[in-house]
Amino acid sequence: MADLYRVANVLVLTSWDEGFGLPILEAAVHRLPIVCSNLDSLREIAGEAAVYVDPADDASAAAGAVVEALGRNPEIGAELDRRVRAAHLWPDVYARFIAPLIEQAVARPLD
Fold first, then answer.
1. Domain that holds residue 39
2. Number of Cβ atoms within 10 Å of the Cβ of 11
């Protein structure tokens, strides 16, 4: 996947439903312009760094959003990259999400 991000010019993620938004994080660390669905979960991650589209819109609306994203100031992507790297480094993810699950499993072993 990293090779695909390296050769990409923009991330277009027009899904109807998205959980965590991992493609947004991956695009951010590659400093790609982002066009994505106007979903709360994606807005929470990308903030002002993305151009948002309604997945129900026709393809011309998404194409216009891609052109807009490509024309944006590249520093917008750099800011998201810094934010993602600060909030989603593996030690931090482990401490916040994985360690509590392991501690819970140890405290309550399976019957």
1. 2-107
2. 21
| The pLDDT value given to residue 74 | 65
What is the domain-level CATH number for residue 24? 3.40.50.2000
* pLDDT for residue 111: 60
Q: pLDDT digits over 82-106, tens only? A: 777 767 677 877 888 788 889 888 8
**Alpha helix segments (H runs only) across 2-110:** 2-7, 22-29, 40-46, 59-71, 74-87, 90-93, 99-107
Quote the Cα angle for 97-49-4, to 5°. 75
Total count of domains within the chain = 1
Partnered with residue 11 across adjacent β-strands are 34
Specify whether the CB–CB gap between 85 and 41 falls below 8 A.
no
